Amino acid sequence: MNLSIAEENYIKSIYKLQEGDEVVTTNALAYELDTKPASVTDMAKKLNAKKLIDYEKYKGITLSAEGKKAALQIVRRHRLWECFLVDKLAFSWEEIHELAEELEHVRSEKLTNRLSEYLGNPVIDPHGDPIPDAHGKMAKPRPQTSLDQANAKRLVVTAVTDQSTALLAFLNAKGIKLGTQLEIVAHYEYDNSIEIKLKQLPALTISEQVAKNIMVRPV
Amino acid sequence: MNLSIAEENYIKSIYKLQEGDEVVTTNALAYELDTKPASVTDMAKKLNAKKLIDYEKYKGITLSAEGKKAALQIVRRHRLWECFLVDKLAFSWEEIHELAEELEHVRSEKLTNRLSEYLGNPVIDPHGDPIPDAHGKMAKPRPQTSLDQANAKRLVVTAVTDQSTALLAFLNAKGIKLGTQLEIVAHYEYDNSIEIKLKQLPALTISEQVAKNIMVRPV
DNA sequence: TTAATTATTTAGATTTGTCTAAATAATATT
DNA sequence: AATATTATTTAGACAAATCTAAATAATTAA
Ligand SMILES: [Mn+2]
Ligand SMILES: [Mn+2]
Ligand SMILES: [Mn+2]
Ligand SMILES: [Mn+2]
Question: Which residues form a coiled coil (chains A, B) (predicted)?
Fold first, then answer.
């Protein structure tokens, strides 16, 4: 099955929006891909014909087994290139997504596997997301919660769910990265903002929106 | 000026066929790009409108100053990725062209320059071709001739002009690579084949076609 | 349960890059 | 110089991916 770049981007976005087994709606996919619902309907028909998704008029989209396999390969390439850019070329985590969005479309298993090997077969990418192996198997992520719902006091940052440059740049500015340890000092009921403290730094208050996108686990 | 992948491939092929200042013909470009002359005419009109080439009906194609600049950037990316694949991922020289053909279209100056730095700012690629720097400047290639026209006896391989997998695989099999030293043992007038001797190896005879594509210089 | 709203699909158009077949221009041959 | 051959361009078509505007289905609210 030879996929175009556009088809690959659709498959990957469907995978992302599925999160388990939820049906993906036309509008959600259009928003995610920054395109129009009419375009999504067109592509849905095509991917359905290619048996990469299950799609019926008005009933939403899910990946077929084959589509899921394809998605995992694309995600693998995306995340490996992100590792390369950070580990080898010293990019920072807010610059890499865009570049990986293009590099992921170079479809060579040999290249992908060599790259993985060269990087030491990493299992998480610079944003804390797991990297599928050559067979599409992914390490189950260790239990983690978003910072706004954490109940333990002492936490470590394990991932960031929103990968927009804006959020990542904000976290950079505040010294928050993967592995950063922090303590919750206070919850403010008024706007659900949270005061946290990083080692060696003065406490700072972050908005609910930020807290929702930082994943953490205890100690 | 934002170029599509197709436009970049055209620009690069025109650059390749120009070799100095020769006018590139419609048919030659069609052959090089494995497409049809009619398609070349269409694209020529477009690139001319974008001022990347000079083109007049029936008068052939040359790159404009801007087109040449664009070409050098693409060539730079192509050859840097080839270096990466060989030096870091242990690919051999006959496997890399195809992959670089895709990687070259990731248009990020920052990525390109970081990659160059990471590789130690190489000035020749795995096929012996010079790599333009960030400003498009290329080391002038040291004087070299094709093996079939060399008159010195003791020679060193400096480049390979035909980058087809077939030729490169042949050279691999015979132990000929960049930097290989060889001696010309005999010219056979009948078919212009050449007998050569590599250190520690029995002499071998290569066809005129092969000899034409191996570039060498004395000692 | 009808009416209003929202979501989705269809119809028809557009852009990009390609093609085939036919027409025309340039070049080579007699 | 006329003719044959080759090179190039044009005309018209097509596939992929997108869009806008209109139609229709599904959902929600009254
Ligand atoms: Mn992408
Ligand atoms: Mn990532
Ligand atoms: Mn290319
Ligand atoms: Mn090369």
Answer: none
